[in-house]
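To: structure desk
From: M.T.
Subject: fold request, one chain
Message: Could you run this one when you get a chance? Sequence is below, nothing fancy, just the single chain.
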Amino acid sequence: MTTVDIAWLAGILEGEGCFQRKDSPSISLAMSDEDVVRKVASLFKRPVNTKKKEFSYHKTQFIVTIHGTAAIEWMFTIYSLMGWRRRRAIIEAIELWKNQHSSFNRETFKCGHSKVSTNTYRGRGDYIICRTCAIARSIRYKKEKQA
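Reply: Done. C-alpha cells follow.
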C-alpha cells in the first residue's frame, strides 16, 4: 500500500465515510459507485455488501465496513489527513475503545463486584460479565416471567 492509497482513502472517507462509536468502533462507506467501494474494500481487506433498490429509481448501494481494532488502526493511520469534524469523531471512537479495553485490566467490574475467576462468566472472545449480577438478573427474569 502506498501513501497515495492512504491519502486517497482519507479523502473518500472525509467526504463519504461514517465513523461510528457506539458498541464497537467502525468505519463504513456506502456509495452507488461500485468501483470506488471495491477499492476501499481491497484496502480494508473486507468484502463488499450490496443494498438492493427500494424503488426502481434508486441506485444500488455498495457498502464496506470495518469494525473493532482494525477500524482503530485505520483511524490512527488517516487521522492527520482528516478535517476537524472527522478528527473529533475519530478521537471519540478511540477513547470509547480504550475505555472498553481498559476494563479488562480492572480489579472490579463496573458494578463494584470483584473481578476474580470465581465471580466471572466468560462469553465469546474476551467478553466477561459479573457472575453475581448475572445470577441476580436471571432470578429477576424468572420472577417476572412467572408473574
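Reply (cont.): The radius of gyration is 20 Å. Let me know if you need anything else for the meeting.
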